Amino acid sequence: MLKSLKQVDWKSIFSPSSLIYTMVGVAFAAIALEAFMLPNKFLDGGVTGIAILVNLGFGINLNLLLILINLPFLIMAWRKIGKTFAIQSGFSIFLLVLVLHYMEVPTVTEDKVLIALFGGFLMGTGIGLIIRGGGLIDGFEVITEYVQKNSPLSASEITIFLNSLIMLSAAFVFGIEPAMYSILTYFTAIKTTDYVVEGFEEYTALTIISKEHEKVKELIVKEFNKAISVYKGERGYLPETFHIKHPCDIIMTVVTRLEVHRIKLAIQKIDPKAFFYVQTIKEVKGGIIKKVGKKHD
Fold first, then answer.
1. By Cβ atoms counted within 10 A, which residue in 143, 181, 190, 258 is the most buried?
2. Domain range for residue 215?
3. Does the pLDDT value for residue 282 go beyond 80?
């Protein structure tokens, strides 16, 4: 055990940025629970949703439930994902329990739509910040990743299936209306989490096949200050003229979704028949992915 603890990246766990993200994220999540969700029997997904369901249905202490239900997932994270991640997640969960125990927040509004939207927004913001800090407050993310590696289902399909069971249970225990509002809360939370984790400037891979490939390359690099990757390929193979083909450079560049339209319009002025396809990408590292100035290091 001592040897395992020596392998933990303690500097990462207790770095200023990680601590700030975690503490602010926990504060947001606690406000969402105390001021919006718990007084109105609205659920989030995952372990938090299960804990709220059991708490409201059977009166068992919510803080105790958050610890007990998350514990098996933290053990799984320790063994299957990483020790640093498991400790950081355990710290986030402990901090949330501590804040919920000592903090009291009055109910802000009685409007159920506002409660669902703002409760989901605050919860999603809190979860996203905690993830950016390197941890989590919901053990379902652990089992989703583990099951995904041993299942043909995607992570999103597994998450939807597991959370659907929670919402069906909520409908059975509390009625259809609270369950419907819980779904709205959950949807708002996951979309907000995506924006907080990935940012509003979601990156997109734009691939271009054009007979004017040299001009297109020059346009993207010199006019839009974007790096490109070039593949050697062939264009042609149309149904009417399948035997006709031409060698060409297939150009790929990474841009934000806000830039895609402008670049496509500029390329179409060079070659109105240029072929595009666009792919959303989750993460970009290295290279030049943002606009750069005239000087480079």
1. 181
2. 203-280
3. no
Cα 123–Cα 54–Cα 190 angle in degrees, nearest 5? 25
- Interatomic CA distance for residues 73 and 91, integer angstroms: 14
Q: Maximum Cα–Cα distance for the chain, whole Å? A: 75
Q: Which long-range contacts (CB under 8 A, 24 or more apart) does 12-15 make?
A: 12/84, 12/88, 12/134, 13/84, 13/87, 13/88, 13/91, 13/134
Alpha carbon distances (Å) from 153 to 190, 194, 210, 279: 19, 20, 37, 21
Task: Answer whether 211's CB lies under 8 Å from 246's CB.
Answer: yes
**48 CB contacts (<8 Å, ≥6 apart)?**
33, 66, 123, 137, 138
Per-residue pLDDT, averaged over 65-90, amounts to 87
- Write the CA distances from 262 to 199, 200, 215, 220, integer angstroms: 20, 18, 16, 11
pLDDT number for residue 168? 86
Do 42 and 152 share a domain, yes or no?
Answer: yes
Statement to judge: residues 192 and 213 lie in one domain: no
Lowest mean pLDDT among 38-42, 159-163, 259-263: 159-163
Are 218 and 170 part of one and the same domain?
Answer: no
Number of C-beta neighbours around residue 185 at 10 A: 29
Q: Which of 264, 260, 277, 23 is nearest to 135 (CA)?
A: 23
**Proportion of the chain in helix, strand, coil states, percent, rounded to 5:** 60, 10, 25
Specify the CATH number for the domain of residue 213. 3.30.70.120
Buried b (16+ CB within 10 A) or exposed e, 197-229: eeeeeebbbbebbbebbeebbebbeeeeebebe
What is the pTM assigned to this prediction?
0.70
